[in-house]
User: Which sequence fits this backbone?
């Protein structure tokens, strides 16, 4: 049979390496302990081989069996280590049995396990500490004291304690004794972690109530410590002292109606700021961190609520039980939080027991083996192809998401609580009797270092308050004003988010702009000096991308460039680096994009801020856009449908624009643009028609006799036109149908214009209405006018967007063939003459249109005209775009070289036009000095090189067009 | 008067500095037979999630375990360096990870600016063991705790299956420090 020590080692072989320390302690002293117990005939009074249920009594027997203090100490450490090992072994065995027996509902088992583990550990450590105190502390000469357990209390990496003393006699000796205890524990057993006194008072291990009072009087200080204080429970010592401490110190942090709640408010502003920061922290794909991913968020938020609802419990599960009763409207939220708390705690506890006492777990192969052991202990098994450890991790991430879903609701409640009870409420009133700017800052001093100001920042959105604040600030002489501004900018040091939010509120108002500029300048100066600024920026951007987006939109190019420079730091954490990369791309968009594009970008990112995080992920954006479109029909009213459809258009415009800015060719861009733009028009037509039907209270039958054709740029599938040329045709004389169709188109117009695109109805000025009858077009084209080729070009270039193929055929048979194709010689002659006369006119006013990408010689207009000529000549019905050049080039050997040159030129000019529109403005005038960004997108070295290419291309286009026209004449 | 050496390891949460502190303290107390204390504190997340671990090693009983006259300060963030450099005693050591600390404050101490995280990533294969690389450097530079004791303490603290990786990190730190002049 194996001896006891061998059995003990084997029983604990699955525990982490750190348990070796306890085994070594047992191995070192167990024989002597047994020998002494036997000498004193107390061997049978002490459990050596299995866990004891009377640890206090047995530990006292063990302590008393030593011959001197060192031996007593060795025995106490040994018995503690032994019982600690056996207790954990038993707990793990119980848990394993419990999860097997519980079936699907493991949470009650987990919860019981954690509560029992906490109770057992506290029981063990309380007696252990008492014995150590007996050995080291002379109670007759030491001050009154109480040792509090703080923190989670189930943690086994150390014993979190706070020691309060009476501040009288021999404090130094007492602290010396605690120091000795602490050093002994480090060697043989578990270590102390002195939470409170590290920061308070002159002694290291203990602090008096007066020292607490003094330290917390003028400033909130470290609110993490206050969190620990709020969770304090007596381990051993003078209970009266604890009561005094509770009354004099702890009570201040609880909410008391109709009393001064400054300390309570400051604690909330600190701890909730911490929650906000933790929520802003990106979730890593490489590792998990029990505390930061979940536990600190849960504990901070419930501790904050505990002070609001006057809950005196200190154990997280008990606090949640009380909160469910006292804040019943959030019953469900607290229940969900409890599940995440329980899951995360048990996972962490077992990981620290079985693997290592670390909060952070790298997700690599070695860790997966270790996590698997934890998963199996928690009752997870391999399911199909999903391994137990993967299943556990999936649940872990689900709980992270669960907490992130619930906590904002509780934060909202706490924000409302602050709005009602803040000491700033009386100051932040436009009718306040003194200087708001100065008094706010004075009161703010106590709150320095806290970072939850959402309630106050919300107040500043009131124009009246903002006006009053600014005028109060401006009332001071410049030097004093500057000093106050410096005071405000100090905020940044602790709270970048609130500072940026305040600045954005200022910058978006006319009255706040001057102050915005002043503060923003100082913000930048401070950021340049601030350590770890990149990480801080990444957190704010990760949680509040729309805020950063709005803030960036208020900055000039120089400032944006400074931000880009600031972010040029190597970041090792992949998730932070990815966020910063995204932020830099966002700054690039603000820096490089035209007002024309930014208008769409800001409009849609305001409505869908989540898109900002995906600006570098075109596939995700595409799915997002499709999602918005699929939502359109599920909207309950026409108005909402139209609004959603507008969102779809803007979103797609933003998405396709991003693709242009990243260098996608015009060919691809124009196709994508046309797809969403046509989809928009077709859907808009359907919705507007339904709405008019509702107004008519009946459906007017149009018998496929109505059609909408895109003309101009949209017909040519050209992106980013700022107008929409449109031809609406009706093949019927019925006046009711005509009126009905006009109403639909009128409604469509008022929506299209909201997309920053002006609809131009071709031929509407001839007939005084949007909808033109087919016979009216026939009549118009039969007129003997020298400029009729212009109308013919509109018709020939038109592309059906809404309507039937039957209508398209009628249109071809009645209009295109008889009036254009059958008269093509005349049409081509007129078009050729137009090209020549345009070139002559361009020569006369060279400086005006020379750099016009559309109207200049060899520009897009020339190309469109030659395309229409080819279309007429060859009788092609497809849309006017570069594919025609390729198609005809394949058939006509004689024209091939020139057509291919035109195709290349057409693509280049379209690329340039698109890039220019998105980086400079929606204008056709190309300014060489503004071409650098477009050059970067189009992969030219610089603007000059691109401009040279622009000129060269137009020369080649002009030459090729002349050649083609000559050849057509010969034919 | 007895020998007393004060270490402060500072940076932000997740950089493994608390664990590093525990390893140094246990190495000194359990495996080298010295007296040691270790304390730790986490700052609020909103202030950058600062993390600090202090270890005091002495051949006598340690009455006052607060590090006030620091012999070696390790900084893994600029913020920590700016905050604590004044506490380093004259002729003490300021050891910084140059990946994170770019501005070295002036003082009457010896400065070692070393690519700790970068080395952990490139030579050892994991940035996560930067804390153990740092322990290697500290062990070699100070000579206060024996290499064997630190090795034993590392092995008793790291997860099963990662022992070789951590020892490699530790030895890399030792080798780095051997190159210091």
Assistant:
């Amino acid at each position: 049979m194996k001896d006891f020590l061998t059995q003990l080692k084997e029983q604990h072989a699955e525990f982490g390496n750190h348990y070796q320390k306890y085994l070594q302690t047992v191995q070192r002293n167990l024989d002597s302990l047994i020998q002494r117990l036997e000498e004193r005939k107390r061997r049978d009074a002490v459990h050596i081989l299995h866990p004891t249920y009377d640890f206090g009594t047995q530990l006292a027997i063990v302590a008393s069996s030593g011959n001197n203090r060192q031996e007593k100490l060795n025995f106490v450490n040994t018995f503690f280590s032994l019982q600690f090992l056996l207790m954990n072994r038993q707990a793990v065995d119980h848990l394993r049995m419990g999860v097997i027996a519980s079936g699907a509902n493991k949470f009650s088992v987990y919860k019981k396990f954690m509560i029992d583990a906490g109770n057992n550990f506290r029981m063990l450590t309380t007696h252990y500490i008492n014995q150590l105190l007996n050995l080291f502390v002379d109670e007759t000469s030491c001050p009154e004291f109480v040792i509090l357990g703080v923190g989670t209390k189930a943690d086994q990496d150390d014993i979190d304690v706070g020691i309060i003393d009476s501040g009288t006699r021999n404090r130094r000796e007492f602290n010396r004794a605690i120091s000795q205890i602490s050093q002994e524990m480090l060697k043989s057993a578990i270590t102390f972690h002195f939470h409170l006194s590290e920061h308070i008072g002159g002694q290291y291990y203990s602090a008096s109530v007066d020292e607490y009072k003094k330290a917390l009087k003028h400033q909130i200080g470290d609110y993490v410590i206050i969190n620990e204080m709020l969770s304090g429970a007596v381990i051993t010592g003078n209970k009266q002292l604890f009561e005094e401490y509770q009354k004099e110190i702890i009570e201040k942090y609880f909410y008391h109606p109709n009393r001064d709640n400054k300390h309570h408010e400051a604690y909330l502003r600190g701890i909730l700021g911490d929650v906000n920061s933790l929520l802003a922290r990106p979730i890593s794909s490489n590792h998990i961190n029990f505390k930061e991913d979940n536990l600190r968020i849960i504990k901070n938020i419930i501790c904050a609520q505990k002070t609001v609802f006057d809950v005196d419990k200190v154990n997280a599960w008990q606090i949640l039980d009380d909160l469910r009763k006292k804040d019943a409207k959030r019953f469900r939220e607290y229940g969900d939080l409890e599940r995440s708390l329980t899951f995360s705690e048990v996972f962490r506890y077992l990981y620290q027991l079985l693997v290592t006492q670390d909060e952070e777990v790298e997700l690599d192969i070695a860790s997966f083996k270790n996590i698997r052991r934890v998963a199996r202990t928690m009752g997870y098994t391999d399911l199909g192809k999903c391994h137990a450890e993967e299943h556990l991790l999936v649940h872990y991430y689900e709980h992270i998401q669960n907490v992130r879903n619930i906590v904002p609701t509780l934060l909202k409640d706490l924000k409302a609580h602050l709005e009602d009870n803040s000491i700033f409420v009386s100051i932040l009133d436009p009718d306040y009797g003194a200087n708001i700017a100065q008094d706010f800052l004075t009161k703010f001093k106590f709150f320095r270092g806290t970072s939850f100001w959402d309630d106050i920042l919300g107040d500043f959105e009131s124009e009246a308050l903002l006006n009053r604040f600014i005028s109060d600030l401006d009332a001071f002489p410049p030097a004093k004003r500057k000093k106050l501004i410096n005071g405000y900018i100090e905020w940044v040091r602790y709270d970048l988010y609130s500072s940026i939010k305040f600045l954005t509120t200022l910058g978006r108002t006319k009255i706040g702009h001057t102050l915005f500029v002043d503060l923003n300048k100082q913000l930048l100066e401070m950021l340049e000096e601030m350590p770890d600024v990149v990480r801080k920026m990444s957190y704010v951007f990760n949680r509040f991308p729309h805020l950063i987006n709005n803030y960036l939109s208020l900055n000039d190019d120089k400032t944006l460039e400074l931000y880009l420079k600031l972010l040029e730091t190597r970041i090792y954490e992949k998730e932070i680096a990815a966020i910063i990369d995204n932020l830099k791309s966002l700054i690039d968009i603000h820096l490089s994009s035209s007002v024309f594009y930014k208008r769409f970008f800001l409009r849609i990112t305001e409505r869908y801020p989540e898109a900002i995080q995906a600006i570098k992920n075109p596939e995700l954006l595409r799915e997002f856009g499709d999602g918005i479109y699929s939502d359109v029909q599920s909207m309950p009213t026409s108005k909402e449908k139209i609004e959603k459809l507008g969102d779809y258009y803007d979103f797609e415009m933003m998405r396709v624009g991003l693709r242009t800015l990243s260098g996608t060719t015009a060919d691809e861009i124009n196709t994508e643009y046309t797809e969403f733009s046509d989809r928009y028009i077709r859907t808009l037509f359907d919705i507007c028609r339904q709405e008019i039907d509702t107004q008519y209270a009946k459906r007017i039958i149009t018998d496929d006799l109505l059609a909408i054709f895109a003309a101009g740029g949209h017909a040519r599938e050209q992106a980013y036109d700022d107008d929409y040329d449109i031809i609406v045709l009706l093949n019927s004389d019925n006046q009711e149908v005509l009126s009905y169709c006009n109403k639909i188109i009128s409604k469509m117009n008022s929506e299209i214009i909201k997309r920053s695109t002006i609809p131009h109805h071709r031929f509407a000025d001839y007939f005084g209405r949007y909808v033109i009858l087919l016979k009216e077009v026939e009549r118009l084209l039969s007129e003997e006018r020298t400029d009729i080729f212009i109308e013919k070009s509109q018709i020939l270039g038109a592309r059906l967007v809404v309507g039937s193929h039957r209508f398209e055929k009628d249109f071809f048979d009645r209009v295109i063939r008889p009036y254009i194709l059958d008269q093509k010689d005349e049409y081509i002659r007129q078009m050729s003459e137009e090209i020549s006369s345009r070139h002559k006119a361009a020569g006369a006013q060279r400086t005006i249109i020379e750099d016009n990408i559309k109207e200049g010689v060899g520009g897009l207009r020339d190309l469109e005209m030659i395309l229409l000529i080819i279309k007429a000549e060859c009788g092609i019905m497809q849309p006017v775009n570069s594919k025609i050049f390729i198609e005809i080039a394949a058939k006509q050997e004689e024209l091939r070289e020139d057509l291919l040159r035109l195709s290349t030129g057409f693509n280049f000019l379209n690329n340039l036009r698109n890039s220019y529109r998105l980086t400079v403005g929606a204008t056709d005038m190309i300014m060489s000095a503004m071409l650098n960004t477009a050059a970067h997108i189009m992969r030219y070295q610089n603007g000059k090189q691109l401009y040279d290419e622009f000129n060269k291309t137009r020369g080649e286009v002009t030459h090729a067009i002349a050649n083609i026209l000559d050849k057509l004449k010969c034919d | 008067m007895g020998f007393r050496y004060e270490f402060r390891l500072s940076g932000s949460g997740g950089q493994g500095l608390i664990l590093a502190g525990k390893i140094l303290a246990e190495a000194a107390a359990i495996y080298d037979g010295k007296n040691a204390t270790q304390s730790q504190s986490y700052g609020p997340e909103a202030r950058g999630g600062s993390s600090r671990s202090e270890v005091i090693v002495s051949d006598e009983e340690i009455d006052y375990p607060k590090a006030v006259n620091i012999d070696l300060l390790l900084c893994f963030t600029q913020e920590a360096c700016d905050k604590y450099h004044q506490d380093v005693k004259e002729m003490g050591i300021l050891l910084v990870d140059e990946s994170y600390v770019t501005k070295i404050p002036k003082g009457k101490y010896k400065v070692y600016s070393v690519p700790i995280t970068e080395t952990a990533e490139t030579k050892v294969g994991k940035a996560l063991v930067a804390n153990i690389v740092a322990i290697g450097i500290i062990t070699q530079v100070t000579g206060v705790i024996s290499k064997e004791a630190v090795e034993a303490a590392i092995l008793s603290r790291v997860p099963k299956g990662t022992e070789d990786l951590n020892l490699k990190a530790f030895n890399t730190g030792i080798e780095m420090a051997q190159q210091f002049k």
Observations:
- Chain A has a mean pLDDT of 89.
- Residues 69-102 of chain A form the longest helix (34 residues).
- Chain A touches chain B through 57 residues (CB under 8 Å).
